[in-house]
Protein 1
Amino acid sequence: MKVVDIHTHVYPPSYVSLLRSRQTVPYIRTFPDAPDSSRLIILPGEDDPSTPSTSRGRPVGPDYWDISKKIAFMDQHGIDKSVISLANPWLDFIAPEEAGEAARKINDEVNEICANSSGRLYAFAALPLSAKAEVVVKEVERLGSLKYIRGIIMGTSGLGQGLDDPALDPIYAALEKNRQLIFLHPHYGLPSSVYGPRANEYGHVLPLALGFPLETTIAVTRMLLSGVWDRFKGLDVLIAHSGGTLPFLAGRIESCIAHDVHLKKHGKIEGRRPVWDILKKNIYLDAVIYNEVGLNAAIEASGADRLMFGTDHPFFPPLEGEGSEWLSVNTNYAAIKAASGGKEAMADGILGGNAIRVLRLD
Ligand code: URA
Ligand code: ZN
């Protein structure tokens, strides 16, 4: 039995240098009240002057870029292989004319990291989504030449208009043709106004626990409503955080579609693939939901053979500091054990077997 972590991020050294050179989100910098601690500021609004210093981004250190730290973390937590991915916000903020070259560089760098890992690491590539669709397609086509790449990671903004944008069709077609799975991951959250006037008192809880999964759920539902999977029946998407809230809300989404006069008038109900079919044929879910209740919903929606263990390292480190076991990881291990209810084959599949099969790992 092998344990494979498919949700684990890195900011490669060249990307860290880029973040250090910037003055607007996303960036890395120190603040006058804590000159010895670099902070990683990536989420929208995270550097608002009203933000308390403990919520101003997060402390950033070698866990984010040093691969020996990643391997040590894997060894500490019994992880055999990891499929690493650039963390948010990927290349979304790169100037359009520089994005193609930036993607080639970072994907080559990540592939090289994997090549030097003695078989421990594979990767999801990043796409130059601020560039024109044809530049993105070209990078998708090139990924086949990178031995350790097993798909691409991307956020919910697409080419700037979301994932229901018809301009993405050539990219979806290229991903489908090249059998490159999309690892869909949130970044932008919800408008901060929904968190209310006391949001500052609650740290990162509302944007991370709720904003992230709802952003993902809305993005996937827009893909569904725009017929992406009716046009691209072989397009595979691995959805972060056990699908956001999709497994829980799928029934409500279907019901709202079935009762929508506008959709009926425009012929968008007849012949469409229901979300339940897509959940079982196109969607994979990570097991990063920290409790068996959410995990059971994911298993019921997509099937235990479509779930894959993840850690979200280096995010959610133990508050006790360096050297301690990661509560976030052990909570996910415990949830998988509980949801599998003694069915060893199910647990083994979620922990690693499914990733080895789906992502064609050696
Ligand atoms: N916070 C982030 O910004 N990204 C993650 O992947 C997890 C937490
Ligand atoms: Zn993540």
Protein 2
Amino acid sequence: AEQNRELKERIAQLKKERNAIILAHYYQRDEIQEIADFRGDSFLLAQKAAQTDADVIVFCGVHFMGESAKILAPNKKVIIPDERAGCPMADMVNVEGLRALKRQHPNAKVVAYINTSADIKAETDICCTSANAVKVVNSVDSDEIIWVPDKNLGDYVSKFTNKKMIIWEGYCNTHDMLTVKDVEEMRAAHPNAQFVVHPECRPEVVKLGDFVGSTTAIIKYCKESDCQEFIVGTEDGTGYQLRKDSPEKKFHFATKYLVCPNMKVNNLKKVARCLETMQPEIYVPEDVADKARLSLERMLLVK
Ligand code: 13P
Ligand code: SF4
């Protein structure tokens, strides 16, 4: 605790010296969320990156999030605590594969989940996050959509659109591990609890949800609901905000495996170190960034 206090003071001082802001995803460790200027889901953090006046953005999340921030704010320095914090789902789609699909479906528009590399975004018509996926798909001016990379979110979205969706076979290791059996066992143990679930989970698990939504939507729902007890079907870092908003309510994570190891690679020591050394810095080649920016900016404009 003493070490954490010293680190937090050091970070606060460096932040001032560098004119930096710290953005933290809801899946980050509690101690990182505590020191963040903004906590949020992928959508909110992309918006904050696009709007900030700071000179430096410290992005505490995974690599594609830092990259999206850099693309949206090309004149800022974007640094991350650890270069190795990647997203396995983002790595499940590659440019060659996507280009081949585009050739097979020349009339389709590409919608990419923000959980993708800059190279994929550069091949994309419009990005989305779990918070706006249905709205984005329905906003696209084509009856045919190539959807990358999350098959589970793709399946969920396909239920709210008449468009034909060609869905890539990627998935989030962490959310995809949750099974119907896990949820049934938790329901038996906590019969008064509602089950809230992220659409990155498998379709048969999502179907069991009393509420389905992005990280921010789940947090908002639990805060505003009259229900006092929840079984949570998303990453365990969301517990920080859920408990902060409603200390009197009970939150049971649906299994102990709902932990994204990549998100947990970051810690306070690494945040302090990156502010000291200004490394590792996110770099996106200009031609890629210019194309990728269009797909992100289109997303930010969808109402
Ligand atoms: P959201 O932030 O959109 O809820 O997405 C969850 C996620 O897995 C981020 O990596
Ligand atoms: Fe990727 Fe899943 Fe981790 Fe999010 S929770 S960063 S989608 S692996």
Protein 3
Amino acid sequence: LLMIVTIDGVAASGKSSVSSGVAQALGVPYVSSGLLYRAATLLGLEADLDLRGAPDLLNLLGAHPVRLEPLAGGNRVWQGERDLTDDLHSTRVDRGVSVVAALPEVREWVDAQLRALPEPFVAEGRDMGTNVFPHAPHKFYLTASARIRAERRARERPEDVPAIEADLQRRDELDTVQSAPAPDALVIDTGPLDLQGVIDTILTRLH
Ligand code: ADP
Ligand code: CDP
């Protein structure tokens, strides 16, 4: 059946949970591109770099390479022997990541790693169906209102729903450029569905 399935969408729309479920049903890996943007951000913050400055960040990433491990149950990101994964979803990284993702050099760094992966796989992010894998035969785009997404994410973050909603809306705005759905993507409003409902909607289209 498969080559590449792309699942893009706005922040906290369910991309990684849905991709993991779809990938496990298909018996293929999934790839979470956002984790690489988050890793670049974390390392930049830890090194106290100005996140708007690509050369310093690229030097850092070149000197200490980062590797994405696309496990079906949940992706992990490594820098040498250090597993960065558990540090990638802090509010600090959430707030810095869009600035880092706006740097063309960082986007090239991420895209090169994704394009080197062996098919088949499910790829999730913002621009998997538009920019990185435009020839993918199966494309999906997840949405939900900012309130619903904030309520879901509040179960994974210390902040309250209004603060998370404001952060999500700010990030959606900063990410607008790379977040347009591919013209050939099926747009799924996940608001009225549960996780399994979204996964089943996608699996039905693949058969
Ligand atoms: P993203 O990768 O887009 O940031 P996540 O996969 O982290 O999104 O999902 C955010 C949260 O929303 C997760 O805890 C997920 O289980 C939850 N969730 C609840 N209902 C749904 C649904 N109908 N569709 C997708 N995710 C949902
Ligand atoms: O789902 P959520 O937005 O919380 O996180 P993510 O998918 O890990 O993405 C984190 C950030 O990385 C986004 O806010 C974008 O700035 C950036 N990103 C991107 O620009 N392009 C991608 N393909 C994936 C993520």
